[in-house]
Amino acid sequence: MCGIVGYLGARDCTEVLMDGLEKLEYRGYDSAGIAVFENNEIKTVKTRGKLSQMKNKLETEGKPVGHCGIGHTRWATHGEPSDVNSHPHSNGRVTIVHNGIIENYAELKEFLTEQGYTFLSQTDSEAVACLLDYYYSERNPLHAITETLKELRGSYALGIIFKDFPERVYAARRGSPLIVGVGDGESFIASDIPAFLKYTKDYVLLDDDEIVRLDKDGAKFFDLHGLPVKKETQTAEWDVEQAQKCGFPHYMLKEIHEQPEVVQKTLDSLTSEGVPDFSEIGLTDEMLRGVGRVFITACGTAMYAGIVGKYAIEKVARVPVAVEIASEFRYMNPILNAEDLVIVVSQSGETADTKAALELAKSRGAKTLAVVNVKYSAIARLADMCVNTLAGPEIAVASTKAYSVQIVSLYLLAFRFAYARGAISESEMKRLTSLLEQTPQAISRVIERSDECQFAASQLINTETLFFIGRGFDYALSLEGSLKLKEISYIHSEAYAAGELKHGTISLIEQNTPVITIATQRHILEKTISNMEEVKARGAYIIAICRKGTMFAEGSVDLKLELDFGDLDDMLVPLPTVCALQLIAYYSSVLRGNDPDKPRNLAKSVTTE
Ligand code: M6R
User: Fold this and answer.
1) With 582 labelled, which of 113, 255, 258, 509 sits at a CA distance of 20 to 30 A?
2) Which pLDDT value is given to residue 175?
3) Which residue in 450, 395, 470 sits closest to 561, CA to CA?
4) How far apart (Å, rounded) are the C-alpha atoms in residues 246 and 251?
5) CA 229 – CA 220 distance, rounded (Å)
6) Among 399, 406, 407, 479, which is best to mutate for testing ligand 1, by the most ligand atoms less than 8 A from CB?
7) Contact yes or no for 350/374 (Cβ under 8 A)
8) How far is the CA of 23 from the centre of ligand 1 (A)?
9) Per-residue pLDDT for 91 more than 80?
């Protein structure tokens, strides 16, 4: 989704803004622009396309020279990606950048047109610039902002500069992220911390319906009535290195390699004396005993992590768990009550549908638990309880390490749940936790097999469509493996429960159609193998991903990827196995000449529904 930056200080503003936008590239965008005060005039440069095009434009048109300005990367919603639809938008006195969607923009546009405003772009955002101008009088920007915000419906993060105030940046938010960086004699606004991490680690979270003014005295905060608000400054735990590639060709590969470490960190933070411990976040055994049903709701990869969580919780705790796509859950009028526990899972903590699902669950009286990677995110702050996963910044659009720490958290929850409800003994909870402690090594062993994953990927590069199949936990993994592959390699792929293929989909299998069979679950191995053989008999090219030592009939497998899980319980093997699937997806993308970090059309954090 769009990225916003803003700066006021002694540095070269254009450089700070461009650098910040580069750090926000991971969010996904199709155009970019900046507006900087140069000799008290606002100079705007914007273009459709990537930041490299923006840099060329700055070279040819001349870089604005100044110390105060705003910048933007746009992910088109209203109006195609074009120069004119790119942000910033201006009407002379007010210049803005906007992330989010103004739902009543058509109404506003009609009203403003009647007032004599003309619109240059097809965006919803331009209405905000005009409305700010409409309310701007007596050199009072704060009044213009508060009046404007009262009329906006939808979501926004806004960066605003007023022509009359060349040493001020204003910003406001509702529903879209915006963070204020507090430096020494300089201040920043940004959609995410990495945009200013190089200059300062101190930040303030802007809440919904709050406004910030950056000027030479620092950052001042106001509410919707224009009254001052006291805010707390926090310090980011991430360092610059964590938000950089550190020698890896892509963030995605770096993030895959970080998994042993982040899984270990997350394990350490959620266990004490060898057992899962959620008491710090207020999730007690008594509360778990009182839970009637569990719902897990999320989007994309986070939702697929939820499916692993469902299988684990139902297996060990014997509590019914329903996994629901957040964009469906929020509109399906779910039947919820105070005994229900609704778990929302999100890397970014800003996904609009997941947040709305959480709000709905809260409003219906259910207990809510968030599993979130960004601890300052809206979802983390909204939920009754929050498990903070410790993946660190995940920059690549395709989620990898965040998935692993999400499932680690859900496994631990499953074990504690089972113990609290008497489904397992304390020693069994300890045993399962100690097995989970072995997963970082098992993950490392899989990552060491990158070459084999690359070879498997090389077998797929000319294919147009393929299938993933598996049963139980392997089916949950198939869903994630298939999503990962298609989102970055652009190869069409489908994931099927292995037993379901013959109910229709098997008709799509032709000579050499690749079928990636995940066969790690020993109690149903024979069943999975039968399904694999059914497709082999119809000409499929079989890549089997299995436990070391798994035997298949001669000729039934074309490529075998045997993984060393050590003594891991079958329930836990999704953790190392997913790394092989991530690597296959990564190499398929690279071998097809794509940029795995920035797949086309996708955004990292989806703040629209
Ligand atoms: O930030 P979230 O975890 O809430 O994001 C959910 C999905 O948008 C995300 O997992 C998406 O599916 C990724 N592109 C998957 O790699």
Assistant:
1) 509
2) 84
3) 450
4) 9
5) 8
6) 399
7) yes
8) 18
9) yes
The residues annotated with a catalytic role in the active site are 2, 604
Which protein residue has the closest C-alpha to ligand 1 atom 7?
300
448, 474 contact by CB (below 8 A): no
**Residue 497 burial (C-beta neighbours within 10 Å; 0-12, 13-18, 19+):** middle
Q: Which two tokens stand for residue 32?
A: 């970019």
Residue 198 CA, ligand 1 centroid: distance in Å: 26
Contact between residue 278 and residue 387 where contact means Cβ atoms under 8 Å apart? yes
72-105 burial code (b ≥16 CB/10 A, e <16): bbbbbbbbeebeebbbbbbbebbbbbbbbbbeeb
| Candidate of 256, 351, 485, 604 to mutate for ligand 1, largest count of ligand atoms within 8 Å of Cβ | 351
- CA-nearest residue, atom 11 of ligand 1: 300
Q: What is the side-by-side order of every strand in the sheet holding 218-222?
A: 89-90, 94-102, 154-162, 169-174, 210-215, 218-222
**Domains of the chain, CATH where assigned:** 3-242 (3.60.20.10), 245-437 (3.40.50.10490), 443-597 (3.40.50.10490)
Nearest residue to 303 (alpha-carbon basis) of 321, 326, 319: 326
538-586: pLDDT as tens digits? 999 999 999 999 999 999 999 999 999 998 999 999 999 999 999 999 9
pTM (two decimals)? 0.82
Query: Which of 507, 608, 577 shows the shortest CA–CA distance to 76?
Result: 608
